[in-house]
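Translate structure to sequence.
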């Protein structure tokens, strides 16, 4: 006999009672899916180029274990470490901002360009800055989607996550 009240029950239904379908939770879910896909893509590029993790570590100036942590989907990593990893591969990265499913901005990391091209990219960024208006701070709305007790539990989970490095691993090694 088990003391588990969920044994034999629908695990997803139980999980849905705990983690409700809210805009915030859907955003976190999409962020996590993106992080997992990015991690897998990095590993795929390394393998496509025929590098082992040890060889990648040598190119990167770190040990094989660091590369392994960076490629492990269970470890968070900083955006800077992702760019450094891609740079060590001789790869580049760009982000696209979509609005109504249309690309309105494409931001290249320019990891593989020389110094003159970097200066040109910086100048291009600031050429377009004249029309940008300062954004006033907008308070985050309180939607009352969950009970105050559940909200406090979520805030505590966020504080724990932040102390452990956050979802992009601001303070983590990899």
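Result:
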């Amino acid at each position: 006999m088990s003391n588990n009240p969920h044994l034999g029950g629908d695990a997803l239904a139980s999980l849905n009672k705990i983690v409700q379908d809210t805009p915030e939770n859907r955003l976190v879910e999409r962020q996590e899916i993106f992080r997992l896909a990015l991690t897998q893509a990095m590993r795929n590029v390394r393998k496509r180029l025929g590098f082992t993790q040890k060889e990648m570590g040598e190119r990167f100036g770190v040990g094989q274990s660091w590369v392994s942590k960076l490629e492990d989907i269970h470890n968070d990593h900083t955006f800077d470490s992702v760019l450094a990893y891609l740079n060590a591969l001789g790869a580049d990265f760009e982000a696209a901002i979509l609005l109504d499913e249309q690309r309105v901005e494409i931001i290249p990391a320019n990891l593989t360009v020389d110094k003159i091209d970097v200066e040109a990219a910086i100048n291009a960024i600031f050429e377009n800055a004249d029309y940008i208006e300062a954004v006033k701070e907008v308070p985050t709305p309180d939607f009352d989607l969950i009970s105050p007790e559940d909200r406090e539990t979520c805030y505590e989970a966020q504080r724990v996550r932040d102390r452990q490095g956050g979802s992009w691993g601001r303070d983590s090694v990899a």
